[in-house]
Amino acid sequence: MTNAVHISKMTGKLDGFRAISTNTITNKFCIKMNSAKAETICKHCYSHTMLKSYRKNMAPALQRNSELLSSRPLEPNEVPVILDAVFRFDAHGELINEMHLYNLMTIAERNPHCTFSLWTKRKDIVQNCRVTRPVPANMIFIYSNPKIGKIMDAPPLGFHKTFNNVPEDKDVDRQNCTGQQCKNCLLCYRHDTTDTIVEKVKVY
Fold first, then answer.
1. Model confidence over 34-57: pLDDT tens digits?
2. Is the dihedral of CA 49, 6, 94, 14 positive or negative?
3. Which residue ranges make up each domain of the chain?
4. For residues 177 and 198, is the Cβ–Cβ distance under 8 A?
5. Is-above-0.70 flag for pTM?
């Protein structure tokens, strides 16, 4: 089905999870952040590295998601049925526009039995969209802090949690996302856990 939303089966740290992602290497925000002079986590982007090299074959499906999710509201028959207990939005890519987020929220609303976690740096899109649309109770908004070594303890307006990166030898006592698979942790996929997640920087 041409207009079907592509769902990816994750591996590695995210083994056991599925995700709806988009194409990082055509996202204008991602391109700008990845090439910026400032030292941010985006300069170490695993997705840019993967999609330009050993995971090139993923790009066409993710590009179809980019175009479908950002262009118009999904038709009722295009909203996927998710049977998972937890699910990730944007394992690759970033919010493109408000329509993209609108469609992700629709998917969450249609699958109330599943908890959806969304990582994004686009505070502008999240805050604009949340003014006009109720947030699904089963959706967790995680602000992906672009600054390395500057832990955000309080989530920005419109977010439930922050995801932070620190150098391996810094804030070791606060690193709570290191050396484990997500399915054995679920800090990011439950409302009743910490709202400050800290991982050591991975260089790709």
1. 887 788 888 777 776 777 775 678
2. negative
3. 8-73+80-200
4. yes
5. yes
